[in-house]
Amino acid sequence: MFEELTPPKRVHYFDGQALHAEDFAATARYLSEKRQQDRRFLHGYGAVDIGRRQSFQIRVDPEHNAALLLGPGYGLDKSGRDLRIPEEQKIVLDQVWLESEEPTLVYLVLRVTEVKDDLWVDPDNPTCQGFRRVREETRAHFTSTRDPQESGLEIARILLHGASGALPGPTVIEINQDQLPRIRASRSMTEQQKSALSKTIRSLTKQLGLLTSLGWNSVTDLRTMLCSLNITACSSGFDSRDWASLGRVLSLAFQDFQQDLLRGEHNDRSPSHSFLHKLHGSLKDLGSGAQDHSHAITSLQELASALKQFLSNTDADELEDEPEHDLEQRFNELEETISAEEDLGDRAAIPETIMIQGQLYHLIDEVVLLDDDSEAEHQLTLENSEDAETATKTYRYPDGRARSAQGRIFSTGTLEWSFLGLEDKGDVLVACRADVGEDDCRALLRVGDQEPELWVTSKAEEGSRWRNGIKAVSAPFIEDGRLKCQLKPSKDTSLRIFGLWLYQAQS
């Protein structure tokens, strides 16, 4: 192997030099060989798995018992050349093998073949001609002998059982791809993944802040660590393979918290077996090194979900028999209690997890009013309203802190929007922040394909004009992860809406 490390030679250009086709070919060859050598030493060879999709998967053609279907994929052969198959291919087995009465072992190998293309002919001298381009094609070949020096990539071993008799009968094919080396692709995060990661880490830091306020000091340093992780992961230089080291650091940092849980140092919040199992599984995934960005984000989301469940379990018994008409009161109590624990910014002013009537709901989506990007993303429109206004209002929490919010005020027309990111199961809670003013804030709310129902945000209590409207809806109509909503004022009512949120029940 080290004999390949002889210094490469490239063409040196200087003024007045006469260049020929061989000089340009030598430059192309130099670059190609350098790239192939880098691939051999840095990545090895094999099929490149992109995300959770595996390259070069093989199956028997259901319509042709003597043919195989080779799935698309990308890979590197033993020479470092890249193998590209853009779409599924059908490969027919040699009839000689099918007619054999003895079991036959064959190997399927991918090789790069150079195909000359774009023929050029001199119009003045037809004997002077050549090809302008060379196209590199990846082709599949069957062979009955295995060559250790094969420069291609062996992607499968296939055992054929031909039927006995003069005529070949149905062929039994056994496919083995266990020997195929696999390489995980090195990929940067997409903008969608960066957004999902940031949202997940915001949720995690909030849960950790609540745990700290409840006396779980073993998680104090984790909040700073997660914020640093978010900045690092969303940078352009962060690679999917970096999750391996970051995952181990996070897993180690959570060990003190796990030990506190097992010792039962907070008897008033003893963990359930379900919570311990979820926590252990999420940390194990992170500690072993995430396969890709999606895998890492999913593990962090499961960790956030487990912590939310742990924080909510204490309230489950007392809420089990809660009557339906106390929904809004309970929501407001939770909002005031949880958000007062820590200054989380205007957009985190309501709880991300609530327990109502023994059911756990998670915050799924938020519409930020008067934010152009958020309104466009959620397809928010206000139609047929001639008296619409926009305003910024301030409201206060029991601890005296003030928050500001932007919203819309209107007494005619219809406000429409869609919530995003829902699953096609689980009841939902539609919530809003409203300034009820001197009178009730009354409206007709239509969720999905449900009939419009009267939605009343009750009068303020003790002089506070700020209230949360909340509506529970069973079996909502969800299409492509969206849930359409429609809100219009009832007669002689002015709507003053300063935030829209949606929760979904979690099993």
Structure description:
The chain contains ten helices and 23 strands. By secondary structure, it is of the alpha+beta class. The protein has four domains: 1-42, no CATH class; 45-184, no CATH class; 191-319; 332-505, Sandwich (Jelly Rolls), CATH 2.60.120. Strands 12, 13, 15, 16, 18, 21 and 23 form a seven-stranded antiparallel sheet that branches. Strands 14-17-22-19-20 form a five-stranded antiparallel sheet, with no helix packed on it. A hairpin with a 5-residue loop joins β15 (389-396) and β16 (402-410). α3 packs antiparallel against α4 and α5 (243-253) packs antiparallel against α7. Residues 314-349 have low confidence and may be disordered.
Task: Give a quick precis of the structure.
With 507 residues, this protein is of the alpha+beta class. It folds into 4 domains: 1-42, no CATH class; 45-184, no CATH class; 191-319; 332-505, Jelly Rolls (Sandwich).
Shape call? elongated
Question: What distance lies between the first and last C-alpha atoms, to the nearest angstrom?
Answer: 56 Å
Structural class: alpha+beta
| Gyration radius over CA | 32 Å
CATH architecture of the largest domain: Sandwich
CATH fold naming of the largest domain: Jelly Rolls
Q: Please report the first level of CATH classification, the CATH class of the largest domain.
A: Mainly Beta
Instruction: Output the number of helix runs.
Output: 10
Q: What is the percent of helical residues?
A: 25-40%
What's the SSE blueprint?
Layout: H1 21-42, E1 46-49, E2 58-60, E3 67-70, E4 73-76, E5 82-85, E6 89-92, H2 95-99, E7 104-122, E8 125-143, E9 153-161, E10 172-176, E11 182-184, H3 191-213, H4 220-233, H5 243-253, H6 255-263, H7 273-287, H8 293-319, H9 327-339, E12 353-356, E13 359-367, H10 372-377, E14 381-383, E15 389-396, E16 402-410, E17 414-419, E18 428-435, E19 441-447, E20 453-457, E21 466-473, E22 483-489, E23 495-505
Parallel strand pairs: 1-11
Antiparallel strand pairs: 1-4, 2-3, 3-6, 4-5, 7-8, 7-9, 9-10, 12-13, 13-23, 14-17, 15-16, 16-23, 17-22, 18-21, 18-23, 19-20, 19-22
Helix pairs in contact: 3-4, 3-8, 5-7, 7-8
